[in-house]
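To the wet lab folks,

You asked to see what we're planning to order before we commit. Fair enough. Below is the target structure as tokens, and below that is the sequence we designed to fit it. If anything looks off to you, flag it before the synthesis order goes out.
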């Protein structure tokens, strides 16, 4: 009860400041695009394709050649072959955290090291190992940053989420938060569907994909892109999922193809941002993952508390208020729980949840 009162008071105060034209801080960020790649390892982000896995994947069935497309003896070349947008644009105009070779460490603050606890942490700003300890479809008791924003007059109805995994409506607590979540095999809805949405809806029926609760990422990506063009939301969350599912199936080839495709999708999102007057130079994009995974030939497939390093993760950012430090090489410890407060600070506000982790001060000019 007490907490609720404080939150309301804080929002009212900020709203008053804003309506007088007095921003709490002089930041340029007005929009946020938050992106996650499920179970994408920091090892590939920073070193590219892994030598112990890359030639062990039945590449004959793969279009093209894994070695030709992803292999070089030089890890700096390899990572560029895998994620060109990360290593061209983010590395020159943004920031990349989590290269443990420099002691630049990012970890989950939860101890579960699987998806729901990871996403709860990113979206709520704190770990909750007591209550969030399974991937069951249970409505999140915690209020996410998306829900906090959607309750504010300035952002109400301008927050949208898209995910490949069908648990996201529960993680975001779509019911309570009022944040629309297009996830799993959800379609675009409404009476004013665009020709693109009609086509994506139809193709989603026709292309079932390999998994039950997770659709292929192109659907998630194109629904998100079309909604950004159509509704111009101020806050967008896009959760790509393929990398984790291919990894569980021991398909290292598909894991790499998917990572490379997601890099291209993120590039497309960023290029759209920088071409649209509402978003251009007023949008910060933050990218991370929900957990890490193992490193051996068998443990790379999995994650969870039984794999000691599966809590090692990474994150990246680009935007008008973020220094262009590129690959972060300073020693330090960060966590994905820090993202929620960072996002609020970029929007000129204090995050209303006291127990949330501190903001990432290096990410804000
Ligand atoms: Zn998984």
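Sequence we intend to order:
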């Amino acid at each position: 009860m007490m907490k609720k009162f404080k939150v309301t008071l804080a929002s009212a105060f900020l709203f008053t400041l804003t309506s007088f034209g007095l921003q709490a801080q002089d930041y340029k960020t007005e929009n946020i695009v938050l992106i996650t790649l499920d179970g994408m390892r920091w090892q590939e982000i920073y070193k590219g394709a892994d030598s112990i896995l890359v030639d062990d994947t039945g590449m004959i069935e793969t279009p093209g050649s894994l070695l030709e497309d992803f292999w070089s003896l030089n890890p700096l070349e390899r990572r560029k072959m895998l994620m060109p947008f990360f290593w061209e644009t983010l590395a020159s105009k943004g920031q990349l955290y989590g290269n443990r070779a420099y002691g630049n460490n990012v970890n989950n603050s939860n101890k579960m090291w699987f998806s729901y606890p990871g996403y709860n942490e990113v979206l709520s700003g704190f770990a909750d190992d007591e209550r969030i300890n399974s991937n069951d479809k249970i409505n999140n008791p915690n209020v996410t940053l998306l829900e906090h924003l959607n309750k504010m007059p300035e952002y109400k109805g301008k927050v949208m989420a898209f995910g490949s995994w069908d648990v996201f409506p529960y993680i975001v607590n779509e019911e309570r938060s009022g944040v629309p979540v297009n996830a799993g095999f959800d379609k675009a809805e409404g009476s004013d569907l665009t020709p693109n949405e009609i086509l994506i809806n139809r193709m989603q029926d026709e292309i079932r994909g390999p998994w039950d609760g997770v659709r292929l990422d192109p659907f998630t990506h194109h629904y998100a892109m079309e909604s950004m063009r159509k509704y111009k939301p101020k806050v967008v969350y896009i959760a790509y999922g393929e990398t984790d599912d291919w990894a569980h199936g021991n398909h290292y080839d598909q894991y790499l193809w998917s990572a490379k495709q997601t890099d291209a999708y993120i590039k497309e999102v960023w290029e759209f941002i920088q071409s649209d007057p509402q978003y251009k130079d007023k949008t910060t994009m933050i990218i991370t993952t929900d957990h890490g995974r193992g490193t051996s030939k068998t443990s790379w497939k999995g994650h969870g508390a039984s794999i000691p390093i599966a809590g090692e993760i990474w994150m990246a950012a680009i935007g008008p208020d973020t220094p262009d430090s590129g690959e972060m090489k300073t020693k330090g410890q960060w966590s994905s729980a820090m993202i929620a407060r960072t996002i609020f600070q970029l929007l000129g506000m204090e995050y209303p949840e006291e127990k949330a982790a501190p903001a990432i001060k290096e990410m804000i000019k």
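Structural context that might help your review: The pocket of zinc ion is lined by residues 39, 114-115, 244, 248, 303 (CB under 6 Å). Confidence is low (pLDDT under 50) at residues 1-7, 16-23.

Thanks,
Computational group
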